[in-house]
Specification:
By secondary structure, this protein is of the alpha+beta class. The protein is built from 7 helices and 16 strands. The two termini are 23 Å apart. Strands 5, 6, 7, 8, 9, 10, 13, 14, 15 and 16 form a 10-stranded mixed β-sheet that branches. Strands 1-4-2-3 form a 4-stranded antiparallel β-sheet, with no helix packed on it.
Length: 332
Amino acid sequence: MLNRGYAYTTIISSKYHAQTLLSHLASLYPHSTPQTWQQKLNNGEVTLNGVTATGSESVTLGQTLVWNRPPWIEPDSPQHFDVLLEDPHLLAVNKPSGLATLPGGGFMENTLLRLVQQRTPNANPVHRLGRATTGIVLFAKTRQAASNFFANWNTPKIQKIYRALSQNIAPHDVYEILTPIGLVPHPLIGSVWAASPSGKPSKSLAKVISRTTSTTTFEVSLNSGRPHQIRIHLASIGHPLVGDPLYGLTGQPLENLPGVPGDGGYFLHAQYLKFPHPITGEQINLEAALPSGFALEGQRDAKRVYQKTETGRARGARQELHNAERAAAPPR
């Protein structure tokens, strides 16, 4: 799909005062090289306080920087979702794997938000799931409902329960995971959320549902809402998700060609969402059916398929995809 392009706007902070504009762009948005940014500047895509920039300018505190990104062809993604519940105040849907919840990472039109708003223009997401994560996404249709959800989202009033298929056999049945989560270096995109001693407090409760000879299926309840929390937390206790190309055994990015957050291949599903209705107070219990990859009889096959696809040729192809996504990824 060819989208309409997008204007990314930032305000220069004191941290970057007196840098050249080219250096600022290259350091702030490392998904593109300085040479690539210079080409964008030469094409007239960047303005500073409304004036087309060359890259040699010194930036100053408070200036408005805009990258007018031309239209680009977005990667294909699923164009469907299942409605689980809808009333005048809320909408709950079951998101498929491969569909971004919100614009970002090279996607502007191929998103769950755009698909939902085509049928329900006043619906806005209360939260988001990773592109490869499946399951329940909740939308508010009124300001009152949105305000209620945002006030209570990370409280015990709202129970968020996930199913995760992880590597290795868990020796215990229950784990309280308190690994802090913060930004750490990433070789492709500059930084990524991961396990970090200096990160923000985070809490998950993981209960074993089943085990095979090489995997463990967990039911995970969230008590905080950090980015990629389940992937990071399970990896930090020695159980990365089966097929996760980003996080290794410590909850840090893999050392050898780590993926980027939007890469798929793992099995994580937002299965249950329980909360009092934001207007009526009625208890709502939502459930999204498990994708086929979670069937117990398919777990070993899923692992074998993943291992087979991670051959040298596939990894080389994934590197090419990473390079393309770096060039297409919105700055952040």
